Amino acid sequence: QVQLVESGGGLVQAGGSLRLSCAASGRAFSLYAMAWFRQAPPPARELVAAITWRGDSTIQADSVKGRFTISSDNTKNTVYLQMNSLTPEDTAIYYCARARRIYGTANANAPDYEYWGQGTQVTVSS
Known about the structure:
By secondary structure, the chain is an all-beta fold. 0% of the residues lie in helices and 48% in strands. The N and C termini lie far apart (40 Å). The mean pLDDT is 94.
């Protein structure tokens, strides 16, 4: 059974920083790509950033490039999202997700991710 538990969300002023963490239970954490998505109205979730199972390559949404960084620590079964220079447009629920396929690529397609955390709210005030 795989469980993903996010933490680190909260309220921050524009220009501030937050670091989200996603702790994964279950075996073989290091063999799957991981990703962070976010959801603000309307309902569609958008990719924020993803990292390959090796941790040697990442992808990011254009809107967060240069501000957000995804990383993973396989010794702790944890993936992180460092968010800097936050703006009110970053306000959303942030979800951690694990890829469906072992050795799968890091990509922006939500159906390619099988397990999802419960989400953590990030609110950026102006």
